[in-house]
Specification:
This protein is mainly β and about 200 residues long. A hairpin with a 2-residue loop joins β2 and β3. Bound molecules: FE2/S2 (inorganic) cluster (FES).
């Protein structure tokens, strides 16, 4: 059985464009490949989730990073924030799609309310059964790292991954879109890195 972490399973995709091969077709139907990819790519990498201009005050973005749904907001001082899209009460999805918000992230189930910084502020129905051992400060939304690079918006699920702007190719002064078009077959032109994305 193919081990998807062996170099032999992917090395052909890293060759120069004219000699590169596609990924083994079995990868697209392999449960093992899926779980390795979730853990080693989407679980660790900075993943592009949109355009920086989309993340404006008063708007909440809902994006997918691998199998995880992530919320992005700007707080009252304009800082970008990211959270796992799951209520700390019963785990309900907080939003299905991008939406406008007035300043509170409201759970659709029991109406818990969170600030744009993710802090739990309101527990409407909970107040009917007061509990001395319940501390709101322990039930804020789970944070996700977010950042921008040039015009792009990124999220990262791991706390151990280096900051986005420490990544070698992000250190240039300003954004330089990769427009080097190469030809890989008669009549077909692609940019580097597009081979697998097009299949
Ligand atoms: S699940 Fe969100 S308030 Fe209950």
């Amino acid at each position: 059985m193919t081990s998807w972490t062996d170099e032999a399973s992917w090395v052909g995709t890293r060759r120069p464009m004219r000699t590169a091969t596609g990924l083994d077709p079995a990868a697209y139907a392999s449960d093992e490949f899926y779980f390795v990819e979730q853990r080693r790519v989407f679980g660790q990498a900075w993943v592009c989730v949109g355009i920086a201009d989309e993340a404006v005050a008063g708007r909440m973005l809902v994006r997918q990073v691998g199998s995880k749904s992530v919320l992005l907001t700007r707080n009252d001082t304009g800082d970008l924030r990211g959270f796992i899209n799951s209520c700390r009460h019963r785990g309900t999805e907080l939003a299905e799609a991008d939406c406008d918000i007035a300043g509170t992230i409201r759970c659709p189930y029991h109406r818990w309310g969170y600030s744009l910084d993710g802090a739990l502020k309101a527990t409407p129905f909970f107040n009917e059964v007061p509990r001395d051992d319940f501390d709101k400060s322990e039930f804020g939304l789970l944070p996700v790292r977010v950042d921008t690079w040039g015009v792009l918006l990124f999220a990262c699920l791991s706390d151990d991954t280096p900051p986005l702007l420490d990544v070698e190719h992000c250190r240039s002064d300003g954004w330089v879109p990769p427009r080097h078009v190469v030809d890989c077959a008669p009549g077909v032109a692609r940019r580097p890195g597009e081979l697998e994305a097009d299949h």
